[in-house]
Amino acid sequence: MLVVMSHDATAAQVARVVEVIEEMGYQARPMPGAQRTSVGLVGNDGRVDGSQLEALDGVAEVIHVSKPYKQVSREWQQENTLVTIAPGVVFGGAAIPIIAGPCSVESEHQIVLAAQQVAAAGASALRGGAYKPRSSPYSFQGMGKKGLALLALARRETGLPIVTEALDEEGAHDVAEVADCIQIGARNMQNYALLKTIGKLGKPVLLKRGMAATIIDLLLSAEYLLAEGNTQVILCERGIRSFDPSTRNLFDLTAIPLVQKLSHLPIVADPSHGTGLRDKVLPMGRAAIAAGADGLIVEVHPNPDRAMSDGGQSLFPEQFEKLVLAARTIAVAIDRSITPAPRTTAGARG
Ligand code: PEP
Ligand code: MN
User: How far is the CA of 173 from the centre of ligand 1 (A)?
Assistant: First the structure.
């Protein structure tokens, strides 16, 4: 439920609304807006009688939020949430950031070179996994803490903020020390204990859609993060399982306008896992921008043929450069732009 205050409501009237909500046994989330303040009521699992609140001074109206993913819904907040992972790298506005990098951090040389290459091509964030969720226990599992240290080094060298995945609750704290944005992978989208832990860490989160998750499932998982007080959440469409083995996943681009209608959170697209095929990443990356994605996340490797994970879907740096150029042209056609690489990039070393 959302208690919308009148334009001229006083601070004392807002405080009284908060007090009454707490007396009713729920939590209150005051949300000052440009025009007026709203106070969200959370903690209920069903309709709440709002008559007591409606009668308070300064209350303009009480809106019942019909969606189960309340705080994530557009009913709760009409304006887009802007998620800032570093100065100038903002998701959810007119400018569209591109996150790029290898699937896994493999060595100092590999990650620093990849960071330099994607920065030069126009990426505004570096993505690389230090902890990898692999379908087989015998596949490369990532470099762990050493990989995190190498990501921090790559950030120092290029100025690119870091997006990297946390796989479990113990590792999440280590990841939070280095990451500018914590990725929660498709396999963990419904790991509710992990969502609660990461929701408390106070860092922006990139939440990927599970491979068999509906859009409502995705939004409800995001609700776990918002319920912990973290509104800095970016959703990610990365393809879902289908009956057709022609592509690794079925890249569901309709999810982008659908989510944007239902939620105020930004949604980015991952054409690398969405297709699993290097030569399909460019056309589907272009299509994602055209569909209105608030960002792209793309796997790029200095030498994809030698990659330790996901080489077959990783772009060569020259292909990534082409994608960024095309994305810029398409963005202009829909009154948007591609976020430039952070200004620190060029001279980060000295
Ligand atoms: C990844 O980003 O490399 C990854 C494992 O992605 P997903 O969780 O979407 O499978
Ligand atoms: Mn990958």
Answer: 20
- Quick check: CB of 128 below 6 Å from ligand 1? no
d(CA 212, CA 17): 41
Q: What is the enclosing helix (H) or strand (E) of 323?
A: helix 317-333
151 close to ligand 1 (CB < 6 Angstrom) = no
Question: Can you give the three-state secondary structure of 50-70, one letter per residue?
Answer: CHHHHCCCCEEEEECCCCCCC
Helix pair angle (108-121, 145-158), 10° resolution: 40
Query: What average pLDDT does the chain have?
Result: 95
Distances (CA, A) of 45 to 1, 64, 87, 94: 11, 12, 37, 35
The pTM (predicted TM-score) of the whole model is 0.94
Q: How far apart are CA 87 and CA 180, in angstroms?
A: 11
Question: Does 150 sit in the ligand 1 pocket, CB within 6 Å?
Answer: no
Q: Atom 9, ligand 1: which residue's CA is nearest?
A: 186
Query: Model confidence over 288-335: pLDDT tens digits?
Result: 999 999 999 999 999 999 999 999 999 999 999 999 999 999 999 999
- Work out whether strand 95-96 and strand 337-338 pair parallel, antiparallel, or are unpaired: parallel
CA dihedral over 222, 224, 5, 67, signed as positive or negative: positive
Question: What pLDDT, on the 0 to 100 scale, is given for residue 344?
Answer: 58
Atom 1 of ligand 1: nearest residue by CA position: 103
Let me know: does 217 contact 189? Beta carbons within 8 Å. Answer: yes
The two tokens of residue 84 are 């800032």
Q: How many other β-carbons are positioned within 10 Å of the β-carbon of residue 303? A: 15
Residue 66 sits at the vertex; the CA angle it makes with 65 and 69, to the nearest 5 degrees, is: 80
Residue 82 has pLDDT above 50, yes or no: yes
pLDDT band at 47 (very low <50, low <70, confident <90, very high): confident
Which residue in 101, 139, 174, 164 sits closest to 341, CA to CA? Answer: 101
